[in-house]
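Hi V.,

You were right to ask for the full record rather than a summary. Here it is.
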Amino acid sequence: MKVLVDIVHPADVLFFKRPIEAMLARGDEVRILSRVKDVTCELLDMFKFEHRVVSRAGHGAFGLGAELLRRDFAVLRVARRFRPDVMTGFGGVAVAHAGALLGIPCCAFYDSETALLQTRMAWPFVSHLTVPASYRGRVPRKRTSYVQGTKELSFLHPAVFRPDSDKARAAGWQEGVENFLIRLVAWKANHDVGKGGLDAELVRAIVSMLSHRGRVHITAEGHIPRDLKPHALTGDPSLIHHLMAHCRIVVGESATMAAESAILGVPAIYAGHDFPGYVLELESAGLVTNIRVEDRATIPQCIAEILRHPLGQVLAIRDSYVSKCPDWAEVVVRTLDRHRRLT
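Predicted structure:
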């Protein structure tokens, strides 16, 4: 099988890592198109995946629109030459457009109902869409599958991911004390236009609170204030999940990282404007605490409440949640096999 995979975000690299490895192992030809966005290309290189950069992340509504046009044409050119049996992407806007024009099946995976612009541009053109069972947004009728769990089960399923203390140390983990991770985002994605996150003073207060208990790590897409830079994560970014698995709490503005934390059995606090179905489901399960950005002043209280409960309690909840979910990496490969173009 010939497969074209469109990678536009670091989380996409992680989501498709095991499916790509599985397809390569059985002899499939996999072509990867990448995007200069945060550590996307660095992760692909670390995992030794050959890839071709076809766009660089734009900024603001105009920049993102211009980038989409460039990426659409670039993906179309590659697909016309490569002639894959199936194309895929997380969200999959560019491959959906190219697939519709060339008559090549496109299987998209997605999990955020709040990215309305992206879904409106992609859903009319995808051959098949796979979303979590918690997804409540509009989807293509008769072309959508609902799967239990979250996309993080493609790479963090407890059956395949084993937290390693040496790798956690290489990512920055400090042994002997409690470790905490704070995630700040840049608010530059197409679904982030007009939004903002935690202010610097609140981040300082959270860091001060947690520093009295142990080691604080800050991972940020954008600028970190100078006085907080000693807390900036400097370890190997490809090993961050080993660090997360050794943390006591993960706090931040990323719904994806909150879900990753939950699947690792580490309590998470997610401060956001919008709450996709999967973080609401994880909150109902007792794995994530969701806080609206306008209520961000309550974060220190939430942290104190979480610290009153033993970490083992969260691990037991995680195990119960995951026991009801499939391995999403296997779901991806089966989906591409089922919807490939037969020649």
